[in-house]
């Protein structure tokens, strides 16, 4: 399976009997997997289905799964609140008796707030179980849509990361070409300083060769360049491989930067230092993109 991103959106709708609903699943970057479910009263049991569904599909990211459910207004019937109606009649009776108000009509009374209420339907356990199963199916569909969106993001990230890896590989090759010049430059620089300090002393040439060789060994960057090339190959394999690669790519990025820093610290050439700095900038761009990979 190709790379997957951590940002996306999925939606699914459904209906059963008097109920209709919509599920929306969103995700953003996160170091670990965090799934949160929010739904209306009466649907708390579906939180487990949402969390299990997220864990089955994803390994990283912050997920928010929201459920909106609506029942047809006529499903529970209506009833007249006799207590509220009686209170209204008692309050209006003195005004009617004093001729300050006309006797109320039926439609007027029913329009008063609190007189007519929606009745609660009797909960049928089997119907409730069927409803929860249907909504759970929609949660799964929304998570599938979210996974597809994250896969699309991952495909785009793969192209970007591969391009940055090619740039890193090119910079490593350029550094290799410059690194071979370091021993000669170190020897010439050391010989000039020694000549300035002691002149043409006997045996100076042998001393220069010995000291310059030791300095060249300390400034040798072939090991760092070999490791950088190895990290490029490892990153390519992760991008082309299966499974979540975000954490491993993030670790590789740290190793990239470690070798690039050592390369710059050992550099005795301005051109090699310049390439090392460009390499660090590219690695940082790579690191920023890796933060979006699951």
Your description of this structure?
With 294 residues, the protein is an alpha+beta fold. The protein has helices spanning 46-57, 82-97, 106-111, 125-179, 182-198, 204-218, 222-240, 246-266, 270-290, and strands at 8-16, 19-28, 33-38, 61-71, 78-80, 116-118. The chain folds into three domains: 8-74 and 122-150, 2-Layer Sandwich (Ribosomal Protein S5, domain 2); 78-118, no CATH class; 152-290, Butyryl-CoA Dehydrogenase, subunit A, domain 3, CATH 1.20.140. The strands form two sheets. Strands 1-2-4-3 form a four-stranded mixed beta sheet. Strands 5-6 form a two-stranded antiparallel sheet. The chain starts with 7 loop residues before the first strand and ends with a helix.
- Indicate the CATH class of the largest domain: Mainly Alpha
**Which term fits the overall shape?**
elongated
Strand content: 5-15%
* CATH topology-level fold name of the largest domain: Butyryl-CoA Dehydrogenase, subunit A, domain 3
- The figure for the number of domains is 3
The total count of strands amounts to 6
The biggest beta sheet is recorded as:
4 strands, mixed
Order of helices and strands: EEEHEEHHEHHHHHH
Strand arrangement within the widest β-sheet reads: 1-2-4-3
